[in-house]
Amino acid sequence: MCQSHQIELATTQLGRRRFVQLATLGGSAALLGSFLPATADAAGGTDALLLSCMDYRLVDETEAFMAGRGMKNKYDHIVLAGASLGAITSKFPAWNQAFWEHLDVAISLHHIHKVMILDHRDCGAYKVVLGEDFGKLPEKETQVHAETLMALRKQILAKYPQLQVETYLMALDGSVQQVLPKA
Q1: Alpha carbon distance 120, 86 (integer Å)
Q2: pTM listed for this prediction
Q3: Closest C-alpha to 88, from 79, 77, 78, 99
Q4: Strand ranges (DSSP E) for 14-163?
Q5: Rounded CA gap, 101 and 59, in Å?
Q6: How many angstroms separate the CA atoms of 161 and 53, rounded?
Q7: From CA 35, how far away is CA 30, in angstroms rounded?
Q8: Distance (Å, rounded) from C-alpha 171 to C-alpha 108?
């Protein structure tokens, strides 16, 4: 692709005002460099695959949780509505397929050794898929999430016994509890 076409593409993607700001700050070479594909360290830089929900309310909290676990810039991330439920529900089989295909790629490309599954409370996908608002019944909500998290954990370990699988439930305030398998 020629440089003028790259600039035109960059202008379209960024918007004219942001393009001019960036071009003024760093010149066109620096700007174009930001649009060229970055070369990731595919071997050794990624520890885990995180599966989380798409809920916009918890984007920052999810990132903070991962950073707090020492995982900043060390994980691949797949987002499905309902997180663990999205990966196993028969209501949306394409979501199941997407999860497993992403997991396969994370293993083969980035050599991950762990899957982290992060569900959250007051999840709309649970309401859509299961037809019940568990947010009003905290004990039942915890139980349903734990069952779903453990079902996905079991499926992952059956297919990939070499992986570690960690399961978590996040509250809307960003606090997180680990959900462990029953002894």
Answers
A1: 12
A2: 0.76
A3: 99
A4: 48-52, 75-79, 114-120
A5: 23
A6: 24
A7: 9
A8: 33
For residue 182, how many other CB atoms are within 10 A of its CB? 5
Helix/strand/coil (H/E/C) assignment for every residue in 116-150: EEEEECCCHHHHHHHCCCHHHCHHHHHHHHHHHHH
CA distances from 67 to 62, 64, 73, 74 (A): 9, 5, 8, 9
- Judged against a pLDDT cut of 60, whether residue 5 lies above it is answered with no
The single residue listed with the structure tokens 């709309």 is 124
Q: Are residues 113 and 47 in contact, defined by beta-carbon separation less than 8 angstroms? A: yes
pLDDT at site 18: 52
Task: Please report the pLDDT score of residue 15 as a whole number.
Answer: 54
Confidence band of 44 (pLDDT split at 50, 70, 90): low
Phi-psi region of 122 (alpha: psi -120 to 50; beta: other; left: phi over 0): left
Residue type for position 29: A
